[in-house]
Specification:
alpha/beta; 5-stranded mixed β-sheet; Cobalt-precorrin-4 Transmethylase, domain 1; globular; 6-stranded mixed β-sheet; Methyltransferase, Cobalt-precorrin-4 Transmethylase, Domain 2
Length: about 280
C-alpha cells in the first residue's frame, strides 16, 4: 500500500487501483473481486472521440462489472484529455516525454475533480496489471501532491498480458538462465541495438520488424477476450498472418491491444520449433 499525504486535507480518501486482467472476467483475481465490491464508485477514463464511436474499453469494463456485481455500480466517466501524438511533435524522447507529462497532468486534474465531487472509496479499473505500462499510480500521486485531497492509495495486482501470452503459447518467456527484456514497440530498435535478444514488446501501434526476419515471434492480440488471436513462427514466415490477425481483432472488438515475444535465432535452445502455441 502506498500512502501519499497532502498538507491540506479534509480526511483520508481511500482509492483502490485494481488490476482486472487482460479482459476475460474469469481472470479477475479473488483479491481484485473483493476490492471491486468494496468501493462506492468507479472512475473511468473515456477515450471516445467527440462525435465518434463509444470507447470500447469503457464498455468492456462495464461488462466486467456486470458479471461481478449484483447491482448497478456508480461509474463516473471522465473525458480523457487529448494527448499529443503527432510524429513531428513526439519524434524525440524529450518531445515524447513532454507530451506524456502534459497528458498526465491534465488527467490528474480530471481525476481530482471526480474524487472531490463524490464521497466514499473510489475504484480505478486497470487493464492487466497496474505495474506494466500504466500510469494510474503516478497520476493519483500527482493528485495527492496538489494538496486538495489526502489519498490512501491501495494497489491490487492483476493478471497481465505478459503472463497470458506465455500461457496461451505454452512457453516459458526465457530459455534456461536467460534474461527477459520488456519494452514498448516505440523502443524496440533501441533494445535490439543494446544487444537484447529475448524481448517482450507491448504498446504496439504497428508491427515493424525490418532486419529481424530470422527471429522467432510469439504474438497475441486482444488476449483474454472473445476476439483473441494467436500467431507464432519465424518472423519472415508469419508477419503477414499477424497483420491479418490484427485486422480481425480490430474488426471484431473495435480495438486491438497486442503483445509479442521476440527471440533471436542464436538465443533459441531449439531453433527448429518456436513453441506449441502457434495458431
Amino acid at each position: 500500500m502506498i500512502e501519499v499525504r497532502a498538507e491540506r486535507s479534509s480526511g483520508p480518501r481511500r482509492v483502490r487501483i485494481i488490476g482486472v486482467g487482460p479482459g476475460d472476467p474469469s481472470m479477475v483475481t479473488v483479491e481484485a473481486l473483493s476490492a471491486i465490491r468494496s468501493v462506492a464508485f468507479f472512475v473511468v477514463s473515456d477515450k471516445s472521440p467527440r462525435g465518434g464511436m463509444p470507447d470500447p474499453l469503457v464498455a468492456a469494463r462495464g461488462r466486467l462489472l456486470d458479471v461481478h456485481l449484483g447491482y448497478d455500480p456508480v461509474v463516473v466517466r471522465i473525458e480523457d484529455p487529448a494527448r499529443e501524438r503527432r510524429p513531428e511533435r513526439t519524434g524525440t524522447p524529450q518531445e515524447y516525454e513532454a507530451a506524456v507529462e502534459a497528458w498526465h497532468d491534465a488527467r490528474s486534474m480530471a481525476y481530482e475533480e471526480a474524487l472531490l465531487a463524490h464521497d466514499g472509496d473510489a475504484g480505478f479499473l486497470v487493464w492487466g496489471d497496474p505495474a506494466f505500462y500504466d500510469s494510474t499510480i503516478r497520476i493519483l500521486e500527482r493528485v495527492a501532491r496538489r494538496g486538495s485531497l489526502r489519498l490512501e492509495i491501495d494497489v491490487v495486482p492483476g493478471i497481465s498480458s505478459v503472463q497470458l501470452l506465455a500461457a496461451r503459447h505454452r512457453i516459458v518467456l526465457h530459455e534456461v538462465g536467460q534474461a527477459l527484456h520488456v519494452t514498448t514497440g516505440r523502443r524496440l530498435r533501441e533494445a535490439v541495438a543494446q544487444g537484447q535478444d529475448n524481448i517482450v514488446v507491448m504498446l504496439n501501434r504497428v508491427i515493424d520488424l525490418p532486419g529481424l526476419e530470422d527471429w522467432w515471434i510469439w504474438w497475441g492480440g486482444n488476449l483474454g477476450t472473445a476476439s483473441e488471436e494467436l500467431v507464432a513462427g519465424r518472423v519472415t514466415d508469419v508477419l503477414p498472418e499477424i497483420e491479418a490477425a490484427r485486422d480481425r481483432a480490430r474488426d471484431a472488438a473495435g480495438w486491438v491491444m497486442d503483445i509479442y515475444l521476440l527471440r533471436a535465432p542464436d538465443a533459441l535452445d531449439a531453433p527448429a520449433a518456436p513453441g506449441a502455441g502457434e495458431a
